[in-house]
Design brief:
3 domains, TATA-Binding Protein, 36% helix, six-stranded antiparallel sheet, alpha+beta, Alpha-D-Glucose-1,6-Bisphosphate, Chain A, domain 3
Length: 540
């Protein structure tokens, strides 16, 4: 199809702070008007400037000769702004002289995978890939994730692209906004290729049986995101019954629940679907399918620490003694399970899926074997899968276990999975409280919120050192982590926002409150810190 020209309607251009659109290793903004106090920041001109910034970055990175045009694949989730942004990105990439291949509705992992697939018949590999998504954020948001065959772009790359975009946008302001593209844009059903690979992986694990999940009843909840394909394109070809699956149709208004495996309403929905349909297993994805969780036949949630424990058990069977890299808010019970029960090593690192993946890659590079990098959020990546952050592949690993167990006569149903996490100590109380920093408060004394937050953490660390009831973690990469009263707390600075999240886990509410009191007493002199959530938690 021919890419439409945007030169016919020239919008008025406002000045834009492009770096404010950075969200770690992603770009995120408001793409749809209608929410009070949230003006649109991802306009078509801004989107085209970002796309042009990526094109320039990619041309510098790949350094190909003039005889070959670079190829960029573009996909999107179910958001209502997806088509508009896809068109804008396609126009600008094509006008920069690159070939554009649109995948339409796709998953984030599939976009990375397209840079690895080698098949010219489907225009692969892509030199670069763009996923248009804002994960589980509300309907009015959207954003971009970028990939090459080296993986997802990191923070520095995103900053570079946004700086280039700002310069390009300045030219729009100075010379007038006009992007024309007459080059053709090709369309490919890449998701058919990606799902076929997932099906092959399960068949292989079961000894090349055509329908290794025949008779298994597995329900899927896609939350009206991009993950609805998993029922019909992965489970059913493997023989599974998928009746009772819900919210498979893409709907960018997300009318049923937030597509988020950490959301209580979302987990309640998939749990209810499992119980109502007497299913063997339930599977739930986030909007762009890079996160996932499961529910067993009894309604037990296999997410957060429990999903990490389950994946660790599977990976450590395959790679005894390997290091499991996680984010910073994993429980002490998980550490004990990985190290004492499974014989592995738990390397608790920082929040942020890219941080966790990059740390696992770094450990391997210095001779410490690691095969799994996984966050409590449901982000997980395996060395065997190119460190691709893929919620669907995590679920395939669970399906492999079900299929291979039945093929070898070792058991049927999700009890095979539940038995793998037997002995995992889970806390009676687990809370996250958000302590916001008021950036307009005089107590900041001209400091950035980051500097102020670091001062809070420094003071907390010093006060804990002299408290005999509490013990700071000997090895810790983020914030202040402390054990006491049979539990632990972690106070850290948010990756992007003026917030200090406080995680507390304890064997009882009373013990959790004791830990909360210790934090409250230590930070009370910081007047710009809104401790109302903590105060409410500890009050009698």
């Amino acid at each position: 199809m021919a890419a439409a020209s945007s030169a016919t309607a020239i919008p008025s251009l406002d000045k834009v702070d492009f770096l404010k659109l950075q969200n770690g290793s992603d770009i995120r903004g408001v793409a749809v008007s209608g929410v009070e106090g949230e003006p649109v920041s991802l306009t078509e001109p801004v989107t085209e400037a970002i796309a042009a910034g990526f094109a320039a970055w990619l041309l510098d990175k790949k350094k190909v000769d003039a005889s070959r045009k670079l190829r960029v694949a573009i996909g999107h989730d179910s958001r209502i702004s997806a088509q508009k942004l896809q068109d804008a990105v396609s126009r600008c990439i094509a006008s920069a002289g690159l070939d554009v291949v649109q995948y339409g509705l796709a998953s984030t992992p599939a976009m990375f995978n397209s840079t690895l697939t080698e098949d010219e018949a489907i225009l692969c590999p892509a030199d670069g890939a763009i996923m248009i998504t804002a994960s589980h954020l509300p309907y009015n948001r959207n954003g971009f994730k970028f990939f090459t065959n080296d993986g997802g772009l990191g923070k520095n790359d995103i900053k570079d692209i946004l700086e280039r975009a700002a310069s390009i946008y300045s030219n729009f302001l100075a010379k007038g906004y006009s992007v024309k593209a007459s080059e053709s844009v090709k369309k490919i059903d890449y998701m058919a290729v990606y799902t076929s690979d997932l099906v092959k992986a399960v068949r292989k694990a079961a000894g090349n049986i055509e329908k290794p999940l025949e008779g298994f009843h597995i329900v899927v909840d896609a939350g009206n995101g991009a993950g609805g394909f998993f029922a019909a394109k992965v489970l059913e070809p493997l023989g599974a019954i998928t009746s009772g699956s819900q919210f498979l149709e893409p709907d960018g208004m997300f009318p049923n629940h937030i597509p988020n495996p950490e959301d209580k309403a979302a987990m309640k929905a998939i749990t209810q679907a499992v119980l109502d349909n007497k299913a063997n297993l339930g599977i739930i994805f986030d909007t762009d399918v890079d996160r996932s969780a499961a529910v067993d036949s009894t309604g037990r949630e296999l997410n957060r620490n429990c999903l990490i424990a389950l994946m660790s058990a599977i990976v450590l069977e395959e790679h005894p003694g390997t290091t499991i890299v996680t984010d910073s808010v994993t429980s002490d019970g998980l550490t004990s399970f990985i190290e004492k029960k499974l014989g592995g090593k738990h390397h608790r690192f920082k929040r942020g899926y890219k941080n966790v993946i990059d740390e696992a890659i770094r450990l391997n590079s210095i001779g410490e074997e690691s095969h799994l990098a996984i966050e409590t959020s449901g982000h997980g990546a395996l060395k065997e899968n190119h460190w691709l952050d893929d919620g669907a592949y995590l679920m395939v690993k669970l399906l492999n276990k079900l299929a291979s167990a039945r093929a070898s006569g070792k058991g049927v149903g999700s009890k095979v999975l539940t038995d793998l996490v037997e002995g995992l100590e889970e806390p009676a109380i687990a809370v996250e409280l958000r302590l916001k920093i008021n950036q307009n408060h005089p107590d900041l004394k001209g400091r950035s919120f980051r500097k102020y937050g670091e001062a809070v953490l420094q003071h907390l660390g010093n006060s804990i050192a002299s408290n005999p009831k509490l013990q700071k973690a000997a090895v810790n990469y983020e914030g202040v982590r402390v054990s006491g009263f049979g539990g632990w707390f972690l106070l850290r600075l948010s990756l992007h926002d003026p917030v200090l999240p406080l995680n507390i886990e304890a064997p009882s509410h009373e013990d959790a409150v004791k830990l909360g009191h210790e934090v409250a007493a230590a930070v009370k002199e910081f007047q710009a810190l809104d401790t109302s959530a903590l105060d409410k938690f500890v009050q009698p």
